[in-house]
Design brief:
Elements: H1 3-24, H2 26-32, H3 38-59, H4 62-67, H5 69-82, E1 89-92, E2 95-100, E3 105-106, H6 108-124, H7 132-148, H8 152-168, H9 173-193, H10 195-199, H11 206-216, H12 230-233, H13 243-274, H14 282-305, H15 323-365
Antiparallel strand pairs: 1-2, 2-3
Helix pairs in contact: 1-3, 1-13, 1-15, 3-15, 5-6, 6-8, 6-14, 6-15, 7-8, 8-9, 8-14, 11-13, 13-14, 14-15
Length: about 375
């Protein structure tokens, strides 16, 4: 995979997000903060920071990333604990998910997604740690903190990614089935005892109905750019959870299929990159972990929009509004870009070495020619 192709795919998805946030969030921004350009201005700022993080991750030595895997895991887990302190965090709709830093708020669970991928890729690259007890030991505390926010959907997403990394690191299949069964039972129990989570399984919920209606009203070719009706009156969370529905209304099945295709190509290229790495190595697991992150999060958001699963609050990578998510995803994709460069460099070095070896071997075995004389 070429770096230019990868950067192009990321840039296209990022641009699509900026375009549709700019045209779909005007009414929402006017009604909530009194500035119709509020959301797009913030998203542009976050995009610039995200591009900077992408550039940093593209150039930083991967040995340094591996070295700081554990400190990053500890710091991000500490941030998850800090936001449960009322005086240090912002509460919205009964959940504490944002750490208040004055002029800006950050979402620690988004930071932990990236930290978990790096940390578990490092842990499970070492054969002695490829046991269920280490997965449970290192995942229980941070996952519990995410659930306490409460943010069940993000906890499930993080668990799915880390369990997949464990499996791809040649983890025991019986152990994986066991932990998935326990996780499903705990999730079901939490849903049953929590009224607001139970309500999300009501398939007649207003938000779910409006998202599905918005998406399907676009039919084949859509109503036209900036011609969405739903975004003005009916559809909640236009620029975050519901942005794919707005895209579907304005560009139709064709537009949505294009976006699904872009994600498919992006994730496929990431997974293909892993085949050039040593199996079960840190780089191998890091690539697959980031690929699963993009794939799972995209699929969850899409499944929510078409009402296959209850509302989750999981955003569409690179397209939905949100700073913490965008910046961490771009950093993760920057690591992929870093690995593309390093893999191509190693291939070139191997090719150069093989050519030199062949040339030397040829000269060593070339028969000497005798000069003819009279």
């Amino acid at each position: 995979m070429k770096s230019s192709k990868f950067i192009f795919l990321v840039s296209i998805l990022l641009t699509i997000g900026l375009v549709f946030i700019s045209i779909s969030s005007i009414t929402e921004a006017s009604n909530t903060v009194g500035d119709k350009f509020f959301f797009i201005k913030k998203q542009l700022l976050w995009s610039l920071v995200g591009v900077a993080s992408f550039s940093l991750a593209s150039t930083i030595p991967l040995s340094l990333i591996k070295k700081f895997a554990t400190p990053l895991y500890i710091i991000s887990t500490a941030l998850l604990a800090i936001i449960l302190i009322p005086s240090l965090s912002n509460s919205a709709l009964g959940a504490r998910r944002w750490l208040d830093l004055g002029i800006v708020g950050i979402q620690p669970s988004e930071i932990f997604k990236l930290a978990a991928i790096i940390f578990f890729a490092n842990v499970f690259s070492q054969e002695k740690y490829r046991h269920l007890k280490y997965l449970v030991l290192f995942l229980t505390v941070p996952l519990s903190l995410v659930v306490l926010e409460p943010n069940m959907s993000t906890a499930i997403l993080i668990a799915a990614i880390t369990i997949t990394i464990f499996y791809l690191a040649n983890g025991n299949l019986t152990s994986i089935i066991a932990i998935c069964s326990v996780a499903m039972m705990i999730s079901t129990l939490l849903i049953v005892i929590s009224p607001y989570r139970k309500a999300r399984f009501d398939q007649t919920s207003y938000h779910s109905n409006q998202m599905t209606l918005t998406l399907t009203s676009g039919q084949l070719a859509g109503k036209g750019f900036a011609n969405s009706d739903q975004k003005y009156r009916y559809l909640p969370k236009i620029s975050t959870d519901s942005i794919l529905a707005v895209i579907g209304e304005e560009t139709g099945f064709i537009g949505v299929s294009l976006i699904v295709g872009l994600y498919y190509i992006l994730v496929s290229d990431i997974f293909t990159l892993s085949t050039f790495q040593v199996k079960y190595s840190f780089k191998y697991l890091l690539i697959l972990g980031i690929g699963c992150w993009i794939a799972y999060q995209s699929l969850i958001n899409m499944a929510t929009v078409v009402s296959l699963i209850p509302l989750t609050g999981v955003t569409l990578p690179l397209i939905s509004y949100g700073g913490s998510s965008l910046i961490t995803i771009l950093f993760g994709l920057g690591l992929i870009n870093n690995l593309i460069y390093s893999t191509r460099y190693e291939d070139q070095q191997d090719h150069h070495h093989n050519r030199n070896s062949s040339h030397t071997s040829y000269r060593a075995h070339k028969p000497s020619q005798k000069r003819s004389g009279s």
